[in-house]
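Quick one: co-fold with nicotinamide-adenine-dinucleotide.
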Amino acid sequence: MSREIIQRRSRGFICVNAHPEGCRANVERQVRAIADHWPAGLTGLRNVVVIGASTGYGLASRIAAAWGFEARTLGVFFERPPEGPKTATAGWYNTVAFHDYARRDTLFAASLNGDAFSDDLKRQAVEVIRRELKPVDLVVYSLASPKRTHPETGVVHNSVLKPVGRPFSSRTIELDSEKVVPVTLEPANEKEIADTVAVMGGDDWHRWIRLLLEEGLLAQGARTVAFSYIGPALTWPIYRDGTIGQAKNDLDRAARDLDLQLTKRFRGNAFISVNKAVVTQASAAIPVVPFYLSLLPPVLRKHNLDEGCIEQMRRLFTDHLADGKEGPRDPEGRIRLDDRELRPEVQKEVLDLWPQVTTENLRSLTDFAGFQREFRSLFGFEVDGVDYDQPVETDLSW
Ligand code: NAD
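Sure, here it is.
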């Protein structure tokens, strides 16, 4: 037992602790967004594995599978448990809440905390699946990690967020000082590009699916999806054409290869879903993205087009993964959940505002305050309905 009043503690912009009740409220809101807004009569998935299941798109997809289809889920993630006076990470508390609500609603859930890149964690997952979740009909691959220890070589690869080929100059928000400042990013060298592809490319996804195939754990018609981002041209030098974009190209290659294997053996499918930009721990770390994410949401709200992770995943599951539903694909075979973000009228408004923003008008011309609030809420802070003056239990587990 460890009951404490938890105040947000930050190092620079990043929160270094998390609030269990705030995380619980976030999970509850997402559960309701699925349970209360699910089209009647949809059937589909029974056994779902989500890799990267504790925050962001992975958590939302796990919730959509569980409360939309009553699927049994295995979630894999890498989170820090509570330790003495230190709170756990937000993804840990999200998972505690996920299990509590799943138990309440008699949904089966299993979770594995550890390094998904490792052979050891993969073997543990195989054991759980063999016992509890066989045959798997969907694997969601939603890892976002700054580094990967290669399971064969032991080499630690660190990903970088840099342009490729030439420097990129733009403006960004210096998150600590809340200043709009010019930024020039030097291009990555060959090793940095290769390292980023090793971390965020398709190799690990490929290994997961190959293992599940070899172990005979996939269902007829099994599918697997990984997530990508394309975004508007103003972010391309750092995203689509940068090191992370190279990794996403490699993910595309893995999708094509896995698709061939799954189609041949199971009449299954592997594909990429290109999702919209949302505030997550991973996306806030990308230069220029906080600037973009301060401008985009108010424009989307004005057009009644705004979606968070859970609304995006609801659309993925209802329109593309339910029985008999095969939503549209782009010419490369990808699902495009970023269609609303990329509408010309939305992008025109963002582009018109972009050069006008200065340090002085940051809070009046953009929704930087909303970006900041949303970022803090990822850690369970500044969440509506939570009484932050009350002591809460931090020593929680599922
Ligand atoms: P996130 O940071 O919210 O979630 C990352 C997840 O990966 C967490 O569950 C974390 O525990 C897990 N993880 C990290 N390292 C791990 C490891 N070694 N072993 C096991 N688990 C590990 O990230 P997110 O923004 O939801 O991103 C998920 C995917 O969606 C990424 O491929 C990202 O590129 C893509 N995407 C994100 C956005 C966006 O705007 N956030 C947009 C489009 C696509």
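If it helps, Residues 52-58, 76-79, 91, 115-117, 142-145, 227-229, 275, 277-278, 280-283 surround nicotinamide-adenine-dinucleotide (CB under 6 Å).
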